[in-house]
Amino acid sequence: MRIGFFGGSFDPPHRGHIALARLAMDRLALERVLLAPVGVQPLKRDRPQADYDDRVAMTRLAIEGQPGLEISLIDAPRPDHRPNYTIDTIRALRTTLAPDDPLFCLLGADSFLSIGKWYRAADLLLSCDFAVAARPGFDLRQVTAALPATISVASCDAPQPDQLVLCLRGAGRGESRLYLLPDLDETVSASAIRSELEQGANPRQLLAPAVAEYIREYGLYPAETSS
Fold it and tell me: Which residue, 13, 156, 198, 220, has fewest beta-carbon neighbours within 10 Å?
């Protein structure tokens, strides 16, 4: 079974997340995409504004009626309160899959540009295949420039004629594939949605109706009040 892992804060989950997951499913023939809200992201100084349980609940609502999209709790807050490192999550996920199940880590291009700062980035990039989605016009050379110095890049034969694929290699540490998906037709971001909510706006068109209602019902991302 071909499986995609899509981790993130999902603070809140929005239509851009769904578009990325569906694009990867279509281009890579994935049978399942696991959306995994993260407990503590190592590179984000501030914790998510919504707590983990709320982000899980909103993600469940966001993927209702979306075939093949599933919630995963594999990136839940750790008992020792350490950050959630993606390489640990991928390795834990591997133990739940069949040995021959292809696994793809899904990322937006903006997130991938910081990959060199991730914990054990080179090992992570060789632990599974990656799919990086970008909006039309994004300079894909930025993706290769973001790779750690210990990762070399070579051209690959693409499984499908319309796929853009690079082979990633680490000296004596194996090989993985990086699939470039340059036609993500969404520009929305969670930070922009939070900003609108905090200003008292109602960005319902960017959210699943059930997610927008959950935010309203539980008073998440409250509007700032002037003193």
Answer: 198
Whole-structure pTM value? 0.93
Nearest Cα residue to 33 out of 50, 19, 52: 19
Which residue ranges make up each domain of the chain?
A: 3-186
Written as six digits, the tokens of 211 are 């997610």
Query: How far lies 36's CA from each of 6, 82, 86, in Å?
Result: 6, 17, 11
How far apart, in whole angstroms, are the C-alpha atoms of residue 51 and residue 73?
14
Quick check: helix, strand or coil at residue 214? helix
The separation between the first and the last C-alpha atoms of the chain, rounded to the nearest angstrom, is 55
Tens digits of per-residue pLDDT, 96-121?
999 999 999 999 999 999 999 999 99
Q: Where are the alpha helices (DSSP H) in the chain?
A: 15-28, 52-62, 86-94, 109-112, 121-125, 141-145, 190-198, 209-218
Query: CA 80, CA 97: separation in Å to the nearest integer?
Result: 25
Angle between helices 209-218 and 52-62 (to 10 degrees): 150
Alpha-carbon distance of 53 to 140, in angstroms, equals: 35
Calpha distance 31→24 (Å, rounded): 10
127-136 per-position pLDDT tens digit:
999 999 998 8
* Mean pLDDT, residues 58-86 taken together: 96
Which DSSP category does 102 fall into?
Answer: -
> pLDDT tens digits, residue range 165-199?
999 998 777 899 999 999 898 878 899 999 899 88
Superfamily for domain range 3-186: HUPs (3.40.50.620)
